[in-house]
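note to self — DONT lose this again. spent like an hour looking for the file last time. sequence + predicted structure for the chain T wanted, 153 res
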Amino acid sequence: MGQFLLERGVISSQQLLEAIEAQRASNPLLGELAVRRGLLTEAQARRINDRQRADDRRFGDIALEMGLLDTVQVEALLAAQKAGRKLFGKVLLERGVIDPARLESELAAHRADQDAANHALAVGVADHALAELANGAIQLCGRLFPRMLEGQS
């Protein structure tokens, strides 16, 4: 969404960076929350993160498997993470960068842009001899890219 708004001239690159940082601060990683709450040490959280990168699995699932957290603790951490999470648009509204009406308009344009791109991709892949393989790769990328980006912050 941020890149879309930047490309449309709705926000500046500085506003984009500041909003991304504010959003990131509102959405701590599960390991960070567990360490803050005294449920894990930093070393334990790092071990789970290392396994997470190798196994491509969720932090909570690995922590459960390793016996470092129980189900109740993981669910409480997930609830706390979700409760504090701010959407990008909300961050922009709170900072006064955009007004509610403009945000709604841009969200609608963004959805339309995504729908058109998804349709063009589906049409482009549909009749290809390797369509099944391509669709599998597209789905995998859809899962991996957000995780990769999380790891960069």
